[in-house]
Specification:
By secondary structure, the chain is mainly α. It is built from 22 helices and 4 strands.
């Protein structure tokens, strides 16, 4: 292992995180918060920058990173970022329990959106900003940004880091230079974020939050861009006006698209975009899901007094489909009380996720399509042994190892999901009654298998809210410290798509080859 080189890059990441903490510090000063709130960001920022500079001192003999080193670096970077990112919540005493604070910020950086907070209105503006800003940082990945400052190498060190942090089965450069690729990605990412902020600012302020109109527009855009899902008002996006809810839903779908699509549009290759198999699958699935959920909800309006019209049923259906397929986790209503057909569709979307190369989590639609095609080819080969198997995706014939790696990923995904459910089943909270207060009223649910399953699925798919005791109007605060640690690791596994975390915790990684 090239520890000195890993330390140098990790140091750069720590310096970058320290610098980024000055953003919530500025918010704290603007809103004239207490000295404790100011120090909550000053102290960890200075510590991060200090340690980061110290890690730059040792000189490494080898400037390149092998693939296993790049993958391990990515995993350890996200852990270090979360360990330090939680400190502000502890210092300002808004989340005094360090494990809870780590859970909150890990959920932020991994763009999960699962929260231990029962009343988000108790947080200061600087803490609200830091939570949502962590979504924006983690959405594209801080290491993708760091790649701008890492020299290109013939051995592909930068590509190893990009592959470890970027979601999807196939990762490549948009252009020949890695630095140019990362700049293009971030320009598209920032451009879409700014556009959403502007459109949200055009709406009238939320009743009771008139002074925070622009502030909430920025935080909402951060959550949408990173497909994170931390809310800043009671009921997530419930209090937002219909115009804003439609705007957010559209941008959730846009951020669920592969960013290569936007690059192709910018350079005028519209035909290539229209030929994208995954893009057609994505919007086709969204259309079908919205239609099924809408019909299910509309046919049961009498049993749901919180939804008063067909337009409202359509808006909530569109929003929740967009929110869950993009693995954002925002909500406009309590889908916990929706009909079973609608809930089933939403659960399936939690598995699939959106497109590869987006900021969304989940398995990714490209993997789902490749897996089904691979199984179809195997069935045909079984029926006709003379059949020459060819699995095509996006107009290209896939190598057998690509199909096998996709099937292996899905197998590991399901195994980790069920292992997490098993661990959660030992939590003392099981079989306890949980009271939920939402726009549907006050009701009681029992924390059991479905709560644990949806919690594990919501964390590994980086969604946030699940169903029943961890629904959109509930929190994860009641879980034991052990369960929270396991769920944090599950979030990380989901965000980094398993392999980097497995490599980090595999003893063979550290043996000399």
């Amino acid at each position: 292992m090239n520890y000195k080189k890993i330390g140098k890059i990790l140091g750069k990441i720590m310096i970058m995180e320290g610098i980024l903490m000055f953003a919530p510090l500025l918010v704290s000063l603007i809103y004239r918060e207490t000295a404790r709130n100011v120090l909550a960001f000053v102290i960890p920022a200075l510590v991060l920058v200090g340690i980061g500079f110290l890690l730059q001192i040792p000189k490494s003999q080898r400037e390149t990173l092998y693939q296993k080193e790049g993958f391990a670096l990515v995993a350890v970077s996200w852990i270090v970022m979360s360990l330090f990112g939680a400190i502000p919540f502890v210092i300002n005493r808004e989340i005094p329990n360090y494990i809870n604070a780590c859970f909150e910020i890990m959920s932020g950086f991994t763009t999960t959106g699962a929260s231990i907070l029962e009343d988000v209105t108790l947080l200061s503006h600087s803490s609200l900003f830091w939570r949502s800003f962590s979504h924006w940082i983690g959405g594209m990945g801080i290491l993708v940004f760091i790649l701008i400052f890492i020299p290109e190498s013939k051995e592909g060190s930068s590509m190893h880091l990009l592959r470890a942090e970027s979601p999807g089965p196939q990762v490549g450069k948009l252009v020949s230079k890695m630095k140019v690729t990362t700049r293009i990605l971030y320009l598209i990412y920032a451009g879409l974020t700014v556009l959403e902020i502007v459109l949200l600012m055009l709406d009238k302020p939320v009743a009771g939050y008139e002074k925070d109109k622009y502030f909430f527009s920025i935080l909402t855009a951060f959550g949408s861009a990173g497909t994170g899902g931390f809310g800043m008002m009671p009921g997530s996006m419930e209090l937002m006006n219909p115009y804003s809810q439609y705007v957010i839903a559209v941008f959730l779908l846009l951020f669920g698209c592969n960013f290569t699509i936007y690059y192709l549009l910018l350079i005028g290759k519209i035909k290539h975009v229209l030929k994208s198999e995954e893009l057609r699958t994505y919007f086709g699935l969204v259309f079908v899901a919205v239609l099924v959920v809408f019909l299910s909800v509309y046919n049961n309006l009498s049993a749901m007094p919180q939804i008063s019209s067909g337009e409202e049923a359509f808006r909530h259906s569109l929003f929740q489909v967009a929110s869950l397929i993009s693995t954002t986790g925002f909500s406009t209503t309590d889908f916990n009380v929706w009909p079973s057909v609608a809930q089933t569709v939403l659960i399936l979307l939690m598995f699939t996720g959106a497109m590869a190369g987006s900021t969304a989590g989940g398995m990714k639609l490209s993997r789902i399509v490749i897996a089904f095609k691979g199984m179809y080819v195997n069935v045909r080969k079984t029926i006709n042994p003379r059949y020459v198997p060819k699995t095509k995706f996006e107009g290209k014939v896939l190598e057998e190892k690509t199909t096998n790696s996709v099937l292996a990923f899905i197998t590991l995904y399901v195994f980790i999901l069920m292992f997490t459910v098993l661990v959660l089943s030992f939590d003392p909270i099981n079989q306890q009654a949980v009271t939920v207060t939402s726009d549907a009223g006050v009701y009681t649910v029992q924390h059991g298998f479905f709560s644990n399953f949806s919690a594990a699925l919501a964390c590994i798919s980086n969604i946030g809210p699940g169903f029943e005791a961890v629904g959109p109007y509930a929190s994860y605060v009641a879980f034991s410290p052990l369960s929270k640690i396991v769920l944090m690791l599950t979030m990380l596994v989901g965000r980094l798509e398993i392999l980097p975390v497995l490599i980090l915790f595999t003893p063979k990684t550290y043996r000399k080859s």
